[in-house]
Amino acid sequence: MAQSNAVGMRRPGWAQRLKEWLCRESTAGVICSLPFIIGFVLFLIVPMLLSAYYSFCDYNILAPAEWAGFKNYVKIFTADAKFVKSLGVTFFYALISVPLRLTFALIVALILLKNTKMTGIYRAAYYLPSIIGGSVAVAILWKRMFAIDGTFNTVLNMLGIQSNIAWLGNVSTAIWMLILLSVWQFGSSMLIFLSSLKQIPQTLYEAARVDGARGYQQFFRITLPLLTPTIFFNLVMQMINGFLAFSQSYIITQGKPMNSTLFYVVYMYQQGFEYFKAGYASALAWIMLLIIGAFTGLLFLTKRFWVYEEGN
Length: 312
What we know:
There is one protein chain. This protein has 15 helices and two strands. It is mainly α. It has a two-stranded antiparallel ribbon with strand order 1-2. Helix 3 packs across helix 15.
């Protein structure tokens, strides 16, 4: 009898334990998440760590990296005029294009809020530029539109306004053409605004109309305050994208004329892949990461002053 009880109390073998472990819900979640975790580590964490190391090295891709300490960072802040220029261009681009894009996105979202038979088609049409806006084909199209003999000048001449300006070749207008392209790509923000507008209770507008509130009063007293969380989200995401803008400058203007459209990421790309200064480019990348982190943190610090949060 004692021997029988001992056999019954014997611990399950490794195969049984493995089967039980695989049947757990938590294990299934880990297994399903493994492709993302592996990709996240191999294609994000590892490259970031390597980039951090190379930023302190003399590294030209073709030869082994040599430790150089803070040499790259000292050069960036003391002897690189293009760094300052590209940073200024990028800040100007982001601080002008993002508010304009969000403004147009909100206006169009308010227009499309009313459901009609054509609303779905209009929403798709307005969202289309955001899908194709970063493509090479659209960049080439934009470049041709604003050439001396492009569509824009042709239309102006047809309207009786004589124009032979190379809009993308003029120092004072080139950056504005890239800003215009960015504003044209407001579709994603528009859809987010549209979904948030649909969540605002209609009873608030009905009560406001009963009290005699006009349309603009309803917008500023009801719509805008309740949209501030969405505005904040769009502002943070679009501002980050603005700082990281690349294709608009690289494909259309290559930073010309006279570096007036030299975005920071384009300059970083030139250092890393045209001049083969990978260590220097890595240092530039980490500086931009710190700038984006600081700017995002600043936005979050101001959040409590203007963002409405339910329950506060």
